[in-house]
Specification:
The complex is a heterodimer of chains A (279) and B (255). With 279 residues, chain A is mainly α. Helix content of chain A is 85%, strand content 0%. Chain A has one domain. Chain A is elongated, with a radius of gyration of 22 Å. In chain A, 51% of the residues are buried. Chain B has one domain. Chain B is built from eight helices and no strands. The radius of gyration of chain B is 21 Å and the shape is elongated. Classes of the chains: A mainly alpha (279), B mainly alpha (255). Chains A and B meet through helix 4, helix 5, helix 6 and helix 11 of A and helix 1, helix 2, helix 3 and helix 8 of B. Chain B: This is ABC transporter permease.
Chain lengths: 279, 255
């Protein structure tokens, strides 16, 4: 090292740190997945408790109805934006009556999965990081290890599993919220006929699209829970460190979720397009 | 008062506190000395933490939308409109929206974590004892910095979306390059861009105010700090989506 200039040396060191961080992430995720059998065998009660907790949220978030209400309201307004923009843009080229088709297309394939990804990362994910981070700082995780309970399967794996289970009802509400917004906005605000709405939105809304967008959301929730449990589990530096860990985990999972969504979306729709307007 | 009434009154009181703080900050911004140094440092700090998430979120968001819309357009035989749709997507809706998500998720969490840490360590109380107003010294510069950064990020995302969409459409989905470029101004012009910038301005302001408020009112040790950062980002995203819809509806009614 002494032969290198200081600048080069620090570059090498920082790239070493990046590789090291990558390895830490990979190792953590592998251990989370390896813990799945143990989590089901030893801690089924904990998984059930976490499902209830992730669905309703804790503290001030539970007051407004928890993650379900927040995620649904976000996809509701996103669906409304998609419907409004679809109506305005299609009317400007004279095909306003086709707007239910556009709204259904955008809501099922784009706005619900994308917005649900963002909402999951900020609700389920950030809450998980803050909870695990607080446990790490107050040395509760070390206490678990002292009691001979492997903390990673007990805390991280159960949360990833609970997230994957709780996503199903959450996704149903999120999708319903999006379509409800389409309906309300187009039928009552833009006066697209009710019959017109149901005709065009169900004519081209392939049921498989909903299944695919569910797969996208499922992929995203795995990424969200993995990233957020990692940052919470490895938090350090007192109360300030917990806040920092939450911030860092939101940044990492937002980026990760969007890239995963893009890749799953392209993989599904590039070779298997269910949309056939022209027959 | 019964406990239910207290619980119901809590969010209302918090809303009032946020508005009061924002009003204080607005008055102080123009009446008292503005701390330039802090504002520039904060702008740099927010830009630094937001830049990488912005690029990745923009890639994921814009390219997926353009990809899906091109599938639709291909079926309609209107692939020459790809540029127009990319313009609508990246300038009118996605630009401001990704800006929100990033400014709230990256900048807001960083601001909130920083202020919450200072509050927990009683640095804010110490400032007040020294006669320094935390709103003037900390909140106002952060608001200005967040607005500035979100405007810059919005421009970056709009431009990046159009350029990324160009390469994606032309090289992967066989859109004619000339048709792509020529159709952009069909739906998107200066007024739409101005609305997009206005949205980014409003979003940046709201994100900064909520983050600062939650950071300064934190209590209860490490769990409290984590919860505060979590709530700041949830509240910001949950508030900004309806605000975005309202601005869009007004825009459609007026333009």
């Amino acid at each position: 090292m002494s032969l290198m200039s200081p600048r080069l040396g620090s570059m090498v060191r920082s790239s070493n740190r990046a590789v090291e961080a990558l390895g830490e992430h990979g190792l953590f995720y592998a251990r989370v997945f390896a813990g799945i059998p143990r989590a089901f065998r030893k801690h089924p009660g904990e998984i059930l408790r976490l499902i209830a907790e992730l669905g309703t949220g804790t503290g001030a978030l539970a007051l407004v109805g928890g993650s379900v209400v927040i995620v649904t309201s976000i996809t509701f307004f996103a669906g409304a934006v998609a419907a409004a923009q679809g109506f305005e843009s299609s009317s400007s080229i004279g095909v306003g009556s086709l707007s239910p088709l556009l709204a259904a297309f955008f809501t099922a394939r784009l706005s619900t999965p994308l917005l649900a990804g963002v909402a999951l990362s900020v609700t389920l994910g950030a809450a998980t990081t803050s909870q695990l981070g607080a446990m790490r700082i107050s040395e509760e995780i070390d206490a678990l290890e002292v009691m001979a309970i492997p903390s990673l399967p007990y805390l991280a794996t159960t949360r990833v599993v609970a997230g994957m289970i709780v996503i199903t009802p959450l996704y149903v509400f999120a999708t319903l919220g999006g379509f409800l917004a389409d309906y309300l906005l187009l039928v009552f605000f833009y006066d697209v006929g009710q019959g017109n709405f149901s005709h065009y939105s169900f004519l081209y809304l392939h049921p498989l699209d909903i299944v695919f967008s569910y797969i996208q959301v499922l992929g995203m929730v795995v990424v969200v829970m993995l990233v957020h449990t990692f940052y919470g589990y490895t938090a350090k530096g007192g109360p300030a460190g917990v806040g920092e860990a939450v911030g860092r985990s939101v940044r990492a999972s937002l980026s990760g979720v969007m890239i995963v969504n893009l890749l799953i979306g392209m993989a599904i729709y590039a070779n298997f397009n269910t949309f056939h307007l022209a027959g | 008062m019964s406990s239910a009434a207290v619980a119901a009154g809590k969010p209302v009181r918090a809303l009032g506190d946020v508005l009061a703080m924002a009003l204080d900050a607005l008055v102080i911004m123009f009446t008292r000395r503005f701390s330039w140094r802090e504002a520039v440092q904060q702008a740099w700090f927010i830009a630094r933490v937001s830049l990488v998430p912005t690029l990745l979120v923009m890639l994921g968001f814009t390219l997926l939308v353009i990809f899906e819309v091109n599938l639709l357009l291909k079926d309609l035989g209107a692939l020459d409109l790809a540029g127009g749709i990319a313009g609508i997507a990246s300038v009118q809706q996605i630009g401001p929206f990704v800006t929100v998500v990033v400014v709230a998720g990256a900048g807001g969490t960083a601001i909130c974590a920083d202020l919450a840490a200072r509050t927990i360590r009683e640095e804010i109380a110490a400032m007040q004892v020294l006669g320094i107003d935390p709103i003037q010294r900390l909140v106002v510069p952060r608001m200005v910095a967040a607005v500035l950064v979100s405007l810059v990020l919005n421009i970056l995302i709009c431009a990046g979306g159009l350029v990324g969409g160009f390469f994606f459409s032309v090289y992967l989905q066989d859109v004619t390059p000339g048709a792509y470029v020529a159709s952009i101004p069909l739906f998107t012009g200066i007024p739409e861009f101005a609305v997009s910038m206005f949205k980014a301005f409003v979003f940046g302001l709201i994100a900064a105010v909520i983050a600062c408020y939650r950071g300064l009112t934190v209590s209860g040790g490490s769990k409290g700090v984590g919860d505060a950062v979590n709530q700041a980002v949830v509240i910001t995203v949950a508030v900004l989506v309806p605000v975005s819809l309202s601005i869009s509806l007004v825009q459609f009614a007026v333009l």
